[in-house]
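Thread: manganese (II) ion complex, take 2
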Amino acid sequence: MNIEPISPDFAARVTDIDLSQPLSDEATVEIEQAIARFAVLIFPDQPLTDDQHAAFTRRFGPIDKGLLLGSKRKPRLSNSDVIDLANVDADGNVLPAANIRNVSLIANQFWHSDSSFKSPPAKYSILCGMDLPDQGGQTEFADQRAAYDDLSDDMKATIDGMVAEHWAYHSRNMLGGGGYSEAEMAALPAVHWPIVHTISESGRKSLFVGIHTREIDGMITPEARMLLHDLLEHATQRKFVYRHEWQNNDVLMWDNQSTLHRGRAYDLNQLRELRRCTTEVVLDEAG
Ligand code: OGA
Ligand code: MN
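Output below.
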């Protein structure tokens, strides 16, 4: 395969590989080494079936099922390892803008790390862009290792050892609520992760904040929210961001422990069809 950096340590284009075919051990290791360095990999022109998508993903770890989008909806895809991120109903028609499922889809436009609200959280996300709108709907990634390195020594000392609470429904509530019952919300309680962690594959330190973080252990809520807000503002400066302009059949792979990402707005009346398959962190490796 050919690996072409977009910047020296963040985002690379990978060509001369066919992701629809079973991945050799050598190719798996090469991809793992590339993502340890670049954190985001772009594989252009890789049309995949759901089964091929899931098989490729399973090479990198156990599958994470995420938070089922719009829990009352019958799944449209037959492979339950693949998360449907299309703004369509079961028959493939674009949803009315006011459909409740758009709350969860629009929540993806906040900076976040997939499944950081779960234990274990997500490691690699592998997103297939099948049908993208002409305007808007890009996906952006922010390098959280570079963001950590760029903090002042004072701020590094301040946040050293701090633990934040991550909650799945914080982002939905920010958008006015996603129609979840108290029982559904209670079924996925908040989890706690260090604000700074070390990525085992690269040895680099990385920030771990985002829209799912809503408290810091041992701190009053307003002070915690403001510190989390300041950290997120720092962490998502344009100098840390790669913006992906989609072509249909691009496949993106990123490390959720080293990056934040977000979608950008688009016309909700236009089809936007993406499917994601995700691996979990193997917890004793993450420490
Ligand atoms: C995701 C996600 C952003 C987008 O797939 O996890 O957040 O651009 N996607 O749809
Ligand atoms: Mn996401």
